[in-house]
Design goal:
Elements (H helix, E strand, L loop, with lengths): L2 H13 L2 E2 H10 L26 H4 L1 H17 L6 E6 L5 H13 L1 H6 E6 L3 H12 L7 E4 L10 E6 L8 E6 L2 E10 L4 E9 L19 E4 L1 H17 L1 E8 L11 E4 L2 E3 L9 E3 L4 H10 L3 E7 H8 L1 H11 L4 H12 L8 E7 L21
Parallel strand pairs: 2-3, 2-5, 3-4, 5-10
Antiparallel strand pairs: 1-7, 6-7, 6-9, 7-8, 10-15, 11-12, 11-13, 14-15
Helix pairs in contact: 4-5, 8-9, 11-12
Length: 379
């Protein structure tokens, strides 16, 4: 057992089975042994070919460059407020923000001058990597870190969250004898590990947010992510008051549904989510349709979700790729391969979705209108 598995075992022995969401929160964010908290510069780098997974900014610089141009257009559509807060949730190594910064300083220096940059990050080790990445830029931007979205200062806001929502703890419910029961993690004495078990029935009075669970057909599993729902509620309410727009890019279906999506990844391969707690990445599919409805309930305006391939196709990813190929002929094959991975329907193009949430008066941002909206010229 890992050190974290032993701690979880003792917790269950003392208090009884825990929810899947509580297990996921401990596995990823335990202060000492959580997957994202125990990172060291010389060991356990989860991002990249030598790690456990690769994110879109690590695949191609074009991802961040186009988002930089997208942010410029969004800012101008808001009337170019100064200052404007730009925040990223879960910035990873800082690669996305670095690519965004290079793009905006080349295309729109006025936008770069107006930016007040914020990184929402809980991992001290990841903060150190982000600091190093941003410091290596030709003109490093000033920036601040925050633990939570609510810590951001008031004012107009542009927010980006790439593969952030999928790592927020997910609750699971299983239909049993015509009722919904919470799925829990219990001790497996036979294997000296953990297994899934059924817990208490859903109480619609205590959990009105679960009132829209579908009719319980035995064996059906449904997932909810309360942290994502609370985040979108607070964010939409803020954007209504202060103005701005948020962009979420993550994987999941366009429409809400049922079924298990919780998964564990180690060294780019799937493993069991209840094995090696703290050593594997846990994630789940994002329920974009539900989050869009929650944004509306908070008086915000959603656009999408739409497939990532369609979104970046409308932003001109093919044209930008051709420019890079012409500038670096020796890397043309690698550039084409990276872009294909991002937008091809059989790769990330359909699985990943893009959802924007903004002020009700905000015009449709680039990428969400079929006729397209012109972006500033990429560098």
């Amino acid at each position: 057992m890992t050190p974290l598995s032993l701690l979880i075992r003792r917790k269950i022995e003392a208090e009884g089975p825990i929810s899947v969401a509580d297990y996921m929160a401990l596995a990823l964010a335990h202060p000492e042994f959580g997957y994202y908290m125990r990172l060291r510069s010389e060991e356990h780098d989860p991002i990249g070919r030598e790690g456990d997974f690769v994110t879109s900014p690590e695949i191609s610089q074009v991802f961040g460059e186009l988002l930089g141009a997208w942010l410029i257009t969004a800012w101008r559509s808001m009337g170019a407020p100064r200052p404007i807060h730009l925040a990223e949730l879960g910035p990873g190594r800082g690669t996305l923000l670095a690519d965004v910064w290079r793009a905006v300083t080349a295309i729109a220096p006025d936008f770069a001058d107006a930016l007040d940059l914020h990184l929402v990050e809980t991992s001290a080790s990841l903060r150190a990597r982000q600091r190093t990445t941003l410091a290596a830029l030709p003109t490093p931007p000033s920036h601040r870190w925050h633990e939570l979205l609510d810590d951001l200062p008031p004012g107009p806001l542009l927010l980006v969250a790439n593969e952030f929502l999928d790592a927020l703890p997910v609750e699971q419910y299983v239909a049993d004898a015509g009722i919904w029961r919470q799925r829990e993690v219990a001790l497996d004495s036979a294997r000296d590990g953990f297994h899934f078990a059924l817990g208490d029935a859903v109480d619609p009075i205590r959990r009105p947010d679960l009132a829209d669970l579908p009719e319980a057909q035995d064996g059906t599993l449904a997932e909810r992510c309360p942290e994502a729902e609370r985040l979108v509620t607070r964010l939409a309410a803020r954007l209504v008051v202060d103005g701005g727009i948020a962009l979420f890019i993550d994987y999941g279906p366009t429409r809400s549904g049922v079924g298990e999506t919780l998964q564990a990844i180690r060294a780019h391969r799937r493993t069991h989510p209840l094995v090696d707690a703290g050593n594997v990445d846990l994630s789940h599919h994002v329920d974009f349709e539900r989050l869009a409805k929650i944004a509306v309930a908070a008086r915000g305006r959603p656009w999408g979700p739409i497939p990532q391939g369609l979104f970046f196709g409308r932003l001109g990813i093919a044209e930008r790729a051709r420019t890079l190929e012409a500038a670096s002929p020796a890397r043309a094959d690698a550039i084409r391969g990276a872009i294909r991975r991002l937008v091809h329907p059989g790769r990330m193009g359909l699985l990943f979705k893009v959802l924007a949430i903004g002020h009700p008066a905000q015009p449709a941002p680039p990428g969400f209108a079929a006729d397209g909206s012109a972006l500033p010229t990429s560098p």
